[in-house]
């Protein structure tokens, strides 16, 4: 593995911008972060602490897209063109979620067309973000070297100042992307200091043993139905949780008639919606809101999904807690079920 010193992340971003479309987190007028394309000559400083409200999942698993069209004689695929692009500044939780989505959509040509020429630049976190608990679910705070092409790791700060960064080339694609940059190799102490950064960040997370307890109770099937029902009374069915969750991957399709024939569209769906599991016969195993809320959290923390996907379906980003208007995001739910 090649590791270099880097004075500022912007030096890497500007270098990559010469060859790729680059997306990075940017703060908007409301103070929220979103993924935005960097235009050449942009001098907006990169904010290492900023995490967008939405994960980048929609860049690969589009919120809404045409799959194909049919004119009465011929089917035409609407598979998107691949474009070399960079996601710059992905946190460990979102990279973990993307690896989860890569597995789920491994045979999906629409997802893969967008994903295959994407270079991932991760960034280590030095402190917990609001509502985050990545370290509890093995998704952070340091970027897993198997999940990114390049990793920015902060050097220890001196008196609050950030003296520089280590740039870790974690894949051949990452190393190739910086070929030609005038970089100084890091000395051999980088890994010690990187591990120390991870230890300090982990120690700063608040006590969340209720999440561990809640996971155990979910897997013991120890949550009475009336607990799910009482949580569900606060659910508005807005789907904010599943839209912002980086690992949610449910979708539905519909055929739209046109003058020439029809096209098929795919769009994000949510298991919190009443009609999500409704069958053509009219039967609906999750017609009760409590069953839908229970289903969502079993999908996040059940051992069945660990066996199938290799890890929990939750990466501890905390977005559902920040988003849910009914106050039934992950912390609220796990606190309640840990104590029933
Ligand atoms: S964000 Fe909250 S209110 Fe909206 S669907 Fe999810 S659980 Fe229900
Ligand atoms: S369930 Fe909530 S905390 Fe877990 S990954 Fe989804 S949005 Fe993040």
Automatic annotation (TrEMBL):
SUPFAM superfamilies: alpha-helical ferredoxin (SSF46548). PROSITE patterns: 4FE4S_FER_1, 4FE4S_FER_2. InterPro entries: 4Fe4S_Fe-S-bd (IPR017896), 4Fe4S_Fe_S_CS (IPR017900). Signal peptide: none annotated. The keyword Secreted does not apply. It comes from Kistimonas scapharcae. The keyword Iron applies. Residues 224-256, 303-333 form the 4Fe-4S ferredoxin-type domain. This is 4Fe-4S ferredoxin-type domain-containing protein. Keywords: Iron, Iron-sulfur, Metal-binding.
